Amino acid sequence: MNVVNNKWIGQRTIRPDGVDKVTGRAAFAADTTMPGMIWGKVLRSPHPHARIKSISTAKAEALPGVKAVVTSRDIVDFTIAKGAVMLGIQDMRWMCRNVMARDKALFPGHPVAAVAATTEAIAAEACKLIEVDYEVLPWAIEIDDALKPDAPILHEFNRFDGKPSNIMGRIESKKGDIAQGFKDADVVIERSFTTRPVHQGYIEPHACLISVAADGKTTIWSSSQGQFMVRAMTSMLTGIPQSDIRAIPAEIGGGFGGKTIVYLEPLATLLAKKSGRPVKMVMTREEVMRATGPTSGSKSTVKIGAKKDGTIVAAHGSFYLQAGAFPGSPIRGAVGCSFAPYEIPHVLSEGFDVCSNRSKVAAYRAPGAPIGAYAVECVLDELAEALKIDPLALRLKNAAKEGTKAAHGPVFPRIGYIETLEAAKDHPHYAAPLGKYQGRGVASGFWFNAGGESSAQVNITEDGNVVVTTGHPDIGGSRAGIANICAELLGIDYKRISVIIGDTQTVGFSNLTGGSRVLFASSMVVTQAADKVIATLRERAAKIWEIDPEAVKWENGAAHPVSPNAGQFEPLTLADLAEKAPSQGGPIGASVQLNTQGAEGGFGTHICDVEVDVDLGIVRVIRYTAVQDVGRAVHPSYVEGQLQGGVAQGIGWALNEEYIYNKDGKVDNPGFLDYRMPVCSDLPMLDCALVEVPNPKHPQGVKGVGEVPLVPVMAAVANAVHNALGKRFYSLPMSPPKVSAALDAPAQQAAE
Amino acid sequence: MPKLHVTTSVNGEPVEFLCEPYETMLDALRGQLGLTGSKEGCASGDCGACSITLDGRLVCSCLMLAAEAEGHEIRTIEGMAKGGELHPLQQKFLEHAALQCGICTSGMLVASEALLAKNSNPTEEEVRFWLAGNLCRCTGYDKIVRAVMETAVEMREMRP
User: Could you report the per-residue pLDDT of A448-466, keeping only the tens digit for each?
Assistant: First the structure.
């Protein structure tokens, strides 16, 4: 596609769902109701680790107003012994136990029963009447505790190195021979880091409304990152076939990965089935904080060796990530992404998946990658300092480029990492003066991006406008991107295109909104569908003009003869052809299903300035610039929005956000007051520099952009703090108490 | 305890409803009044997604009892556009892409309108501190602050 002459791609159009969202009309899951609706509530374990000896629900069931009670007996069991049953990256053996504890409760907040009643108050009252006999077990919250030789074991069947263990798995990426590599190095720096678990922090709590008819036909309204995921998981956990479940995607109030699995939907479905009434369930913020998400806390060690001239010759990373109660921490992201920006001959990157008595982690924006990048990019900063090389120059010297074989496998095609480094170096921000107690840091990051299954329909309405249906919940403006692309392809005003998200029974299978895949994959299917529609339109015009379809071109929203030789005809517009459709072959539309390929990885480089209040230990970000290779900015505002949002989340992760546990093994800060996400007055404007190196494998050059922006942030902030104070922090968050303590400490180096 | 009878005004329209003594204004709005534009993100006054005005004063409707509406004037996001015409803030939020998922947007707009009613020429810092009680997890606030400041300029210019 000729990017120079694009009329709609690259425009900052008004998003199709915008007016609904600024007027309060948009329907999120908690906004939906049905006649006869009742309320569901979950009874949750108060213990971090306990065997469930018995559950008696008789008293709850006898309470007037209670319509149904469910426990793990009602959920389909995927037994451990039968082996993994995978749905995407989720093993249903863990999913069935996460939505409802079976033999053991594994974290405070783990569901043990659910009730539906005519009011929320009665449902809550009924939960108190359920009698659970727990045998409280010793528990472990932190990685170090879970790895002790005498640690309580969460999953007794699991063995690591032949012994019962909370290490549920190990992966590695390997290239060359690190022993040889470190021998070749003139300078070697090895450091260890810890990060705390942080929550995705979506403002909308999980919610659903579910109706099950007497014949089993089920309708789900829920806020999720994938209606097909909701349908499949609910089907597997309830035994209702997928053909009987219509999952309707409500608007979603933020997800960031945290809404890629189910929590409430299977419970509400079973309650609705038992009671015969539609059941609505909405989590409280406290439930969200105790029982959903977050991403892993971690401990990492990274060792990098380089020649005197800055050439990196060897790198070793080991990353231990908390999985929470069930296996499945994002070690792949930490292991695969950390060293990906660099051409390094000898690399070993290892990840360990560690269970402990916390809520099961969920995906969070480039899962695992920010944890790995934090460690690697901080060590690179020390390496640059030791070698007296500018940190961007060090990265440029070692930057991955077309042809580089990454340690995690692929050989990179044309990528834009070097362009991001050069843009950062040339950015006025990088040369701006700094004041007292101010410092500047840089860091880079990589995310795989993803393709996969997507479906779309493009239909021409009888009045000659367009309806595009895709299968991905729009979490940050993807409908606007699709409208721009479709307007470009069809040559019509974007306002004539309505983009909607279909439910599971009206559009073909489409994988999750996740992995930064949506605009990449959905625009690929929409492009193919639009091409088919254009082919039909040309055929119709050819038939009317009685010429060959090859002699008809589609331009500016109308069919034209390719040249005067083809004949002299007035153009036939979309409206003309729609009007004539009944007599010329019928409705005009196309549907395309693909397993999309060619989602290439994305790179970003960030510059961060901080100022430290040395009396209070408060670090403030005072200037921030995110540079990223975004492929093609189909709608620049929403691309910038992805960068700015990711940066803000990263600043929270770097400076304030953390789960704090009390001595009873429970989260002590399960609300927005004490779990301190960045507020408006915490942040400066967040500048973006979009580098566009089109993805050669995509019709519009699209690359995923949503996840990369979180990857470099914590290291950029940490490096800036070091630059301001001359002290390095090896653990996050760099919160005021920690910074104050470091400033008060007599030692000059190595705070923490 | 019997339900309380409340007579109030919502978005300029007379409204009567019955509520439990413990019921929040947010629950009354979202429940029996069917005004679901105000959102519940926390139910503890920390996120601002439920922002409304009570006699022109910005409040979190999750921290207000429904019974407290008696005799007062409530305004919500649903009353912001006049007929089919968007408020300048709503229009600027769209133009600036000052929303991504949209869950905080109602509260942000109500809070921003309350700011501009008090201060027609806010500095960036004043906007940031005024909106510090409205959490947004998607945007990093950049485009929201710009939209509010640009609306202020436009509204000042429009004023006779």
Answer: 999 999 999 999 999 999 9
Long-range contacts (CB closer than 8 Å, 24 or more residues apart) made by A130-133: A130/A43, A130/A55, A130/A56, A130/A57, A130/A59, A130/A60, A130/A69, A131/A54, A131/A55, A131/A56, A131/A59, A132/A43, A132/A45, A132/A52, A132/A54, A132/A55, A132/A56, A133/A52, A133/A53, A133/A54, A133/A55
* DSSP 8-state symbol, A725: H
**Contact residues, chain A, for B106 at CB < 8 Å:** 24
Beta-carbon neighbour count of residue A174 at 10 Å? Answer: 13
Q: What DSSP element (H or E) covers A121? A: helix A120-129
pTM of the model: 0.97
Chain A residues with CB under 8 Å of B139 CB are 641, 644-645, 648
pLDDT (tens digit, 9 = 90+) per residue, A255-275?
999 999 999 999 999 999 999
Can you give the pLDDT at residue A747? 56
Residue A2's pLDDT is 43
Tell me which chain B residue has its CA closest to the CA of residue A200: B137
CB nearest to A203's CB, from B80, B104, B109 = B104
**A593-639 residue pLDDT tens:** 999 999 999 999 999 999 999 999 999 999 999 999 999 999 999 99
* Strand-by-strand arrangement of the A552-555 sheet: A552-555, A558-561, A572-573
Exposed e or buried b per residue across A484-521, where buried means at least 16 C-beta atoms within 10 angstroms of its C-beta: bbbbbbbbbebebbbbbbbbbeebbebbbbbbbbbbbb
Question: How distant is the Cα of A239 from the closest Cα of chain B, in angstroms?
Answer: 32
Q: Do A253 and B39 touch (CB under 8 A)?
A: yes
Report the share of chain A in percent with pLDDT over 70.
99
Q: Where are the alpha helices (DSSP H) in chain B?
A: 25-30, 88-95, 105-118, 124-130, 142-158
To the nearest whole angstrom, how far is the Cα of A643 from the nearest Cα of chain B?
8
Tokens read off for A171: 């992966």
- CB within 8 Å: A17 and B102: yes
pLDDT at A175 over 70: yes
Q: CA of B22 to nearest chain A CA: how many angstroms apart? A: 11
Local structure of A318: helix, strand or coil: strand
Taking one residue from A and the other from B, the number of pairs with CB-CB distance under 8 angstroms is 179
